[in-house]
Amino acid sequence: MEVKGKKLLILGLARTGVAAARLANSLGADVMVSDIKSQEELNEHIKMLEGADVRFFLGSHPESLLKGIDLIVVSPGIQGTIPILLKARNMGIKIVSEIEFAYNFLQVPVIAITGTNGKTTTTKLINELLIAAGYRSLGLGNIGTPLSEFALNSQEYDYLVVEVSSFQLEEVVNFKPFISLILNITPDHMDRYKGIEEYSRTKYRIFEKQKKKDFLVLNYDDLMLRKLSPQTGASVLYFSTKEVINNGCFVKGGEIFFGFQNSVKAVCSLCDVKLEGLHNLENALAAITACSLCHVEPETIKKVLSEFKPPSHRIEFVRELNGVRFINDSKGTNVGAVVKSLMSYSSPIILIAGGRDKKGDFDMLRDLVKSKVKKLVLIGEAKEKIKKSLNGFTHSINASDMNDAVKKSFEAASSGDIILLSPGCASFDMFNSYEERGVAFRRAVMGLK
User: Fold this and answer.
1) Does the residue 101 lie in any domain?
2) In this structure, are 133 and 261 located in the same domain?
3) Residues annotated in the binding site for ATP, as ranges?
4) Under a CB-based contact definition with an 8 Å cutoff, are residues 384 and 354 in contact?
């Protein structure tokens, strides 16, 4: 992609917008950045671009900015249906996501991970496995560091391991990973997509440019992915916690195996995987599949899995008090994540749920709540919707804030119970992020006596 001397418009000045602006500026483009927030709100990000030849247009996205524009780079938070993008499409202006923009300047293979849940944990695990095997590897993308930050220095690495959200895949064109992984598909962001079909089609864009020497890794235990007949030239492998897989990773007799090209080898034992929860076992199998394709040896995989610590706020043990265990799964921002969390425990559960609804289908939780949840403690804007969906399946109470939720949960708990924060909702009604919500839960738990 040649951008020198071209006029580029970057929509959205968050982390990805800053990184894309820096990259475009270093490549000699004429760069403009537009964001609907004010200069005061964006002051921190504006400072990051001090010294760069960038013009800012803040407070709105005026369509007059489109005059003479050659390329628009869209940050993940920008929806493709806003007026300026609709106008740009009518004018024939090329629109790409930040991850697509950066990809065009890479010189090394990409391992890309998407799915509804588990992306960050799997990205981190794959990256640590590759590093332990002696590869120069770097974890990027939705995990925290935009791909654009390292696009011009990619030759310093053997692999870039990239977490990719559906938002980032909406505007890809040439994005072609060496290995693509789709961990699972359950309804999420239904406030952005028309339905699960549109959402899943966006996820599937991760493999649409792959070719014969590339690999696609899918979750065989996910019904949508099992039934998928991917239109791709890539070799397709699967992972499963339930079935023996010819090409991919599976569990049998307490051992984990990897099979490929008519050869099967033992990798490690289930007891070597220190991650809690069924979904984390799936994440581990996905990572083993990808890294086995990169020739990481079983001894290395076993060692890393026995020491690996997942990112915070994902099935994170906080404390045990009077025989009650407290688990922080604040990253569980959709119903599918709550399902996996509930399935991970056999002890009675007091579930703290709620927040800002993303048009989730809480009816999906009925059977699990009936069999596993002793009490439901509800917070946030969605509490009445959740209560209505799950009425009659367990006893529920409302809480005013996180401190109140933790207090009421502990009062209802007995020795041997688990108090699980797995909200099934976004955090933005009460907190700035799921991280802030998880910290509030931890703080409330540690304050109990």
Assistant:
1) no
2) yes
3) 115-121
4) no
Enter the tokens of residue 159: 């692999």
Question: Could you list the residue range(s) of the whole structural domain that residue 48 is in?
Answer: 7-96
Residue whose tokens read 């709620």? 354
Q: How far from the centroid of its chain's Cα atoms is residue 14's Cα?
A: 17
For 325, the token pair is 């265990």
Residue ranges at the known binding site = 115-121
What is the pLDDT tens value at each position of the chain, 449 positions in all?
Answer: 899 999 999 999 989 999 999 999 999 999 999 999 999 999 999 999 999 999 999 999 999 999 999 999 999 989 999 999 999 999 999 999 999 999 999 999 999 999 999 999 999 999 999 999 999 999 999 888 999 999 999 999 999 999 999 999 999 999 999 999 999 999 888 889 999 999 999 999 999 999 999 999 999 999 999 999 998 999 999 999 999 999 999 999 999 999 999 999 999 999 999 888 888 999 999 999 999 999 999 999 999 999 998 888 988 999 999 999 999 999 999 999 999 899 989 999 999 999 999 999 999 999 999 999 999 999 999 999 999 999 999 999 999 999 999 999 999 999 999 999 999 999 999 999 999 999 999 999 999 98
53 inside domain: yes
Contacts of 39 (CB under 8 A, 6+ apart): 46, 56, 58, 59
The domain tally of the chain equals 3
- Whether pTM > 0.70 for this model: the answer is yes
Residues 173 and 25 in one domain: no
Q: Which residues pair with 140 in a beta bridge?
A: 162
Phi, psi of 373, deg, nearest 5 = -100, 120
CB atoms within 10 A of CB 312: 15
Annotate 276-322 with DSSP letters as a single string: -SHHHHHHHHHHHHHHHHTT--HHHHHHHHHH--PPTTSSEEEEEET
Q: How many other CB atoms sit within 10 Å of the CB of residue 293? A: 18
Residue in 268, 285, 105 with CA at minimum distance from that of residue 181: 285
- Helical H runs in 113-204? 119-132, 166-169, 196-204
Measure CA of the first residue to CA of the last residue in the chain; give whole Å. 60
Which DSSP string corresponds to 217-249? EEETTSHHHHH-----SSEEEEEESSS--SSEE
CATH number at residue 300: 3.40.1190.10
